[in-house]
Write a structure and sequence with these properties.
heterodimer, A: about 80 residues, mainly alpha, about 65% helix, B: about 180 residues, Rna Polymerase Sigma Factor, Chain: A, Arc Repressor Mutant, subunit A, 2 domains, 8 helices
């Protein structure tokens, strides 16, 4: 049996075991749940990209372990 | 100001309009993946929560429908990853048995078990491509991968199912 034939056979088996969703109609309006979710989890005031935090962490680490680099940093600012 | 521009600017009323316009379509897409109506409702809300949260990243001249579907797919995939092994056979949708089906009872349960044991990213494409017969193109856009990769994942999903069900398939195909 070729791969394609086997794929088709498997597809048929799967469709017999797991019927396609025929009724995917939403039964109710989900807006009230959405509003509740929005009230429960207020959006963050500001979002800082992760790489900004990573840069800040790296810079802090360098300054803590190599304080002699502070003048060089200030010179380049 | 256009609806999408108002939404991207954080207008809650614009978001409500978009929610009501797209909730049914988002739900219908998710339920095809997770195959549970209650979970699909929760994930629809989760999807729109993410949409609202990341609204600043949406370009008002972009395709909101495609963007929403991508986020819905990611939410469904996250669910499959977290819910894995927690519940066996979560499908709560009516399963219509084929009248002349050779696949009955225990055999059907074995196939369903093998399907639900697939790794989430393979289960997702298997559900959409093999069971729901969505086009590779639609799946590729929704998942954010190429059509070629969708085909590869479908192929691998079939191979995994074959390995799990090898003896069973041989028996059925021999009939």
């Amino acid at each position: 049996m070729s791969n394609e034939e086997f794929s088709n056979a498997m597809k048929e088996l799967l469709k017999q075991a797991i019927a396609p969703v025929r009724d995917a109609e939403l039964r109710r309006d989900l807006w009230p749940q959405m509003l509740a979710r929005l009230e429960r989890q207020p959006q963050p005031v500001s979002s800082v990209p992760w790489f900004d935090w990573a840069l800040a962490a790296i810079l802090s680490t360098v300054l803590i372990f190599f304080p002699s680099s502070i003048p060089a940093l200030l010179y380049h600012l | 100001m256009e609806l999408l521009e108002r939404f991207a600017a954080g207008d809650l009323e614009a978001f409500e309009v978009l929610f009501r316009q797209h909730q049914r379509e988002v739900y219908a897409w998710i339920v095809r993946i997770v195959r549970d109506t209650g979970i699909a409702e929760d994930l629809t809300v989760e999807t729109f929560w993410r949409i609202y949260k990341y609204r600043a990243r949406f370009k008002p001249d972009g395709n909101f429908r495609a963007w929403a579907r991508r986020i819905a797919t990611n939410a469904a995939l996250d669910h499959l990853r977290h819910a894995r092994r927690e519940t066996a056979l979560p499908e709560n949708l009516p399963c219509e048995a084929s009248p002349d089906s050779a696949v009955r009872g225990e055999t059907r349960d074995l196939i369903r078990k093998a399907f639900y044991e697939l790794p989430p990213k393979y289960r997702l494409v298997a559900a959409l491509a093999l069971v729901e017969e969505e086009s590779y193109s639609d799946i590729a856009h929704a998942v954010g991968i190429s059509e070629s990769l969708v085909k590869v994942r479908v192929f691998r999903a079939v191979r995994m199912l074959r390995n799990k069900l090898n003896s069973l398939v041989v028996e059925v195909c021999a009939k």
